[in-house]
Each structure stands twice: as structure tokens, then as C-alpha cells.
Amino acid sequence: MASTTAVRVALVGIGGHGQVYVDELLDRPRDTDFTIVGGIDPAPEGCSRLTELRESGVPLFDSLEAFYDSGGEADLVMIVSPIHFHRSQTELALANGASVLCEKPLCATIQDAHSMLAAEEAAAALTGGGPPGSRSRALGIGE
Ligand SMILES: NC(=O)c1ccc[n+]([C@@H]2O[C@H](COP(=O)([O-])OP(=O)(O)OC[C@H]3O[C@@H](n4cnc5c(N)ncnc54)[C@H](O)[C@@H]3O)[C@@H](O)[C@H]2O)c1
After folding, report:
1. Exposure winner among 10, 73, 99, 115, fewest CB in 10 A?
2. Which residue segments constitute the domains of the chain, with CATH numbers given?
């Protein structure tokens, strides 16, 4: 049954390890507890299920800034981009009211970590991390 409170999920990084997230999102029943509101990647052709995403009507953007500039809204931003983008993308998502699930490692420097924590504390949102082994069903989306 469709939910009126479906979580709006934006996925940042749909190739590489992001493919695991794409698979999880696409292989779960749609219109239940979440909807994919954006696939964000400057090189989306690295995603083996790009055609399926397009056919499903998932909007694609080459940056998280472009997603928000287009008027995009997300409840949850999943960040699976290279490490050096984690801080800026997490802070941008938090500033736009989203909660964040950021792949490990959280960031590259302790300064980035402090900044990200401060951004979380200033936001009405939460962050979580994807630990090694996050392919585990125990950490699966919607469970
Ligand atoms: N939990 C695990 O088991 C596990 C395994 C592998 C990688 N990782 C983590 O996943 C993250 C990504 O690693 P990877 O090896 O897949 O990296 P990668 O270099 O393969 O990039 C992943 C994707 O991000 C895209 N990308 C690049 N710049 C981007 C940007 N500015 N915005 C959005 N997307 C962008 C790339 O085009 C690519 O499709 C890292 O944090 C890494 O540590 C976790």
C-alpha cells in the first residue's frame, strides 16, 4: 500500500560502492516506505542500472548543489561519493533539512569531522555512518 509519509531519498554516488545502494533501493517494493527523489553523480554511466533508474523516473543530477538548485527536497541523503566530498555534501544536506547516511570513512580529517558534527548539532536532522560490511541486510534500508 502506498504511504503518504514515504521517505524521500536522494542518493549521492550511484557508481562504485553506490551501486550497492542502487540495488537495494531498486530491488525493494516501490511506493511503500520510500521514494527515490534523485540520483546524484557527475559520471552516472558508472552505474550498471542507470537505464532502470531513468525508466523509473528518477531525476539525475551531476551534483548535490544542482539537486537543491532544481528545487529538490529530500528527507534522507545517502552519501556514497569519494571521501573528500563527504564533508561538503553532508553539510549541504543538513543545511537543507535532510538527515544523512554517510559511507565510511566519515571524512578525511579530524577538522572535517568536527565541522560535520557541529553542522549536525545545528540542524534538526541526524547523521549516521555506513560501516564496513554495510551490505548486511541487518543494516538494510527500511528495516
Ligand atoms: N562499506 C563498504 O563496504 C564500502 C566498500 C567500498 C567503498 N566504500 C565507501 O564508499 C564511498 C565511495 O567509494 P567508491 O570506491 O565507490 O568511490 P568511487 O570513486 O568509485 O566513486 C563512487 C561514485 O561517486 C561518484 N562521484 C564522484 N564525485 C562525486 C560527487 N562530487 N558527487 C556525487 N558523486 C560523485 C563517482 O562518479 C562514482 O560513481 C567511500 O566513502 C568508500 O570508503 C564503502
Report:
1. 73
2. 7-137 (3.40.50.720)
